[in-house]
Amino acid sequence: MKFSKLGLGVGLTAALLLAPVSAMAEMSASAEIDERAKDPNLWPAPGRDNQLTRHSTLSDINTENVNKLNMVWSQSMSSLRGQEGQPVVIKLDDGTPMMYFVSGCPSMALCNVVQALDLTDPDQPKQIWNYVKKTDRDESAIPRACCDTINRGLNFAKGKVVFHTLDGFVIALDGKTGKEVWVTKHAYPEKGETHTGPTMIAENLVLAGFGGDEFAARGRIVAYNIEDGSEVWKCHSTGSDEDVCLTADFNKANPHHGTAGKDLGIITYPKGEWKIGGGAPWAWFSYDPELKLVYYSTGNPGHWSPSLRCGLENPTHEACNKFDPDLNSGPFDNKWSMTIFARKVDTGEAVWAYQMTPFDQWDYDGVNENILTDMEIDGKMVKALTHFDRNGFAYVLDRTDGTLLRAHKFVTVDWAEKIDLKTGRPIKVKEHSPFSIGVNTTTCPSAMGGKDQQPGSVDPKEPHIFYMPTNNWCMELEPQERTHTQQGTVYVFANVYMYPEKPGVTGKVKKFDVLTGKTIWEIPDPYPNWGGTMVTDGGLMFYGSLGGDFRAVDRESGKILWSRKLGSGIIGNPITYKIDGKQYVSVKSGLGGWIGLPVTAGLDMNDKFGAIGATAMAKATGLSNIPQGGNVYTFRLSD
C-alpha cells in the first residue's frame, strides 16, 4: 500500500480524557478539542465538536427571554463577499478567552484574512493580531473556485490556528502571536484544485481535501502532521485500489457496496478518465475517537454529460446511449464519486464506503456533512451516521461498518423512486434521468440539492431529530458535447436552468425525524437557505436567511421567537459561547456562495444559465436587492 502506517496520538487513556487543561500537552490534538467541547462556554471546532452536532448545552438564552437579545458588537471580515463558516472560541493556556475567524477570498490582497480577538472584555473584544499570506499566491484560484471564493472556517489545537487558503495552502499559526509555524502546499489551481474547506483535526493529524470537480480535478484527502505540516498519508477518490487505499477487508460487512480486488475506481470510468474523474472531498469531515475512524464524502465525477462517462474502452455518445440510461445495474458507477468514506485515522485505510448516487447525472455532490450520534434503531443501539444529501435523501448508516439503515426523502424528489435498502442503490426514474446530449430533462431537486453544504444540527439527547436548512427548487438540465479533457479548465458541458418548485418559497428550515422520514415542522422562506443551524438547551434553534434575517426559533413548535435584520445575506453558521456569566451568540453575514455568486461576481441576471444555473435562481428570488458586506455579529441579553 502507498499509505503510511504511522499512527499519531492514538490510544489515549481514560485518565487523559479527564485531565485538566494544564495536561492538554499530553493529549492528542483532537482529544484537546474533545476536552474543550466538555466546557459549554466554548465553541472549540467548526461543528462545536468533531461529531458535527452544532449543539450547545447553554440555556441562559431561552424561549422565555430570547426577545431581549440585542447586538453588542460587530467586526468587519476585511472582505465583502462569501462569508460561509463560523468562528471558534477557545481559551489559551493562560486562560485568555479568544475568538478566531477567517474571511473569504475576493482578491489575493485580502484572501483568507485570519483575525484573533481577545474576549477578555466580551462586550468590546480587541483584535490582537491578523494574518494574510503575502507570498507565492496564485491569482488563478479565484476564477477556478467553484462555487464562489468562500472559506468554511478554521481550527485550533496544540496552540495553533490551522486554516487553509483558496489557492491551496494549509497553514498553522501561533495562536498567541499569529506567526507562521508551518506552511504546506496542498492543492494546485492549475490542476483545477481550490480549497474552500474546512480542514479537520483528528488525533495529531490535519485532514484536508479540496474542490474542483467542475475543473477536471482528481479528488484526494491528505493527512498532515499538526506539529510540522509533513505529509503522513494520502488517499485518492478514483484510481486503483492502492491509490484509494482499499484492502481485502474493505466493505467486509457490505460487499454489495463494492469491494477491493477489481480496481473499481478505474474500470467504472472510460479508459483513463479516472485521472480527471472528480470525486473531490471539498466540505465537512467528522471523527469518532473511539472507533478511530474519519468520515467524509466525495463530489461529482467530473463533467455533467453522463453519456460520455460510461465505462467503455473507447466511449462515444452513440455507444453509451445503447445502454439503459437508468443504469441501475452498476457497471458504470464512476467509483468512488458521490461516496461516504470511513477511513482509519492513522493510515487512511478505507474501512467502508457507500456510494449514494452511482453514475451521477445531476451534479448531486455527496460532500454534505456526516453527523455522528448514537441512536436506537429497530430495538438496537447503533453508532449512527446521518447524512442529508444533495440528491434529496436523508441516509442513516451504522458508522462501524457502513450498513444502510434508513434512506428517506426530505424534499421533493423525482429522479428516484426510493433507495433499495438491501442493495443500497437508488431506483432511478428514466423520465428524470438526463442522458442524451442536447435533450432537456426536468428534475427535482436541482443541482444545488435538497440541501447543499450548509450544515444542520442535532441535540444528541434526541439523536434522530435534525434541524435542517433545505432548498426547494428544481431544474432543467441539457447535457452538451464535451470539447476538451484539460485539467484546470471549466469542465461542465451542460446547460442548467434552475427554478423554484413553488413560486414564493425557495427555502425551508425543517425539523426532521430521520427514522420515520417525517417532517415535524418547517419554516418556509422566499429565499433559499444557504446558512447552517444551531440548537441549544435553551429550547432554541438559530439560523440566518439569505435575506439577512437572523432568527431564533422555538425547537418544540417551530415558531420564530426573535429576528434581527443584519447587514447582508447570511450564509454563515451560528455559534454560542459564555464569558463572565453571560451567554453570547455570533454569526457571520456576507452574501455569497454558489447561490450568491451572480450578485457578488456581477453576472448578467438575464443569463439564465449563468453560474451553472445560479443566475436564474438569484433573479427569481431577488437576491440582487440584497446588499453585500462581510461582518461577524454578536448578541447577548440586555442587562
Question: How does this model look, in words?
Answer:
With about 650 residues, this protein is mainly beta. The chain has one domain: Quinoprotein alcohol dehydrogenase-like superfamily (Methanol Dehydrogenase, Chain A, 8 Propeller), CATH 2.140.10. A five-stranded mixed beta sheet has the order 1-32-33-34-35, with no helix packed on it. Strands 2-38-37-36 form a four-stranded antiparallel beta sheet, with no helix packed on it. Strands 3-4-5-6 form a four-stranded antiparallel beta sheet, with no helix packed on it. Helix 6 packs across helix 7. The termini are far apart. Mean pLDDT is about 90; it is low at about 1-20.
Number of separate domains: 1
Q: Could you describe the largest sheet, including whether it forms a barrel?
A: 5 strands, mixed
Q: Determine the CATH superfamily.
A: Quinoprotein alcohol dehydrogenase-like superfamily
Looking across the biggest beta sheet, what order are the strands in? 1-32-33-34-35
Radius of gyration: 23 Å
Computed structural class: mainly beta
Quickly count the helices.
Answer: 7
Task: List descriptors.
5-stranded mixed sheet, Methanol Dehydrogenase, Chain A, disordered N terminus, single chain, 4-stranded antiparallel sheet, 639 residues, mainly beta
Q: Which SSEs are present, and which pair or pack?
A:
Elements: H1 14-17, H2 29-37, E1 55-56, E2 69-76, E3 88-91, E4 97-102, E5 114-118, E6 126-131, E7 155-157, E8 160-164, E9 169-174, E10 180-185, E11 200-202, E12 205-208, E13 220-225, E14 231-236, H3 241-244, H4 264-267, E15 285-288, E16 293-297, H5 317-320, E17 339-344, E18 350-355, E19 371-377, E20 380-388, E21 393-398, E22 404-409, E23 416-419, E24 426-428, E25 441-443, E26 457-458, E27 465-471, E28 473-479, E29 494-500, E30 507-513, E31 518-525, E32 533-536, E33 540-544, E34 549-554, E35 560-565, E36 575-579, E37 582-589, H6 593-600, H7 614-621, E38 631-637
Parallel strand pairs: 1-32
Antiparallel strand pairs: 2-38, 3-4, 4-5, 5-6, 7-8, 8-9, 9-10, 11-12, 12-13, 13-14, 15-16, 16-17, 17-18, 19-20, 20-21, 21-22, 23-24, 25-28, 26-27, 27-30, 28-29, 30-31, 32-33, 33-34, 34-35, 36-37, 37-38
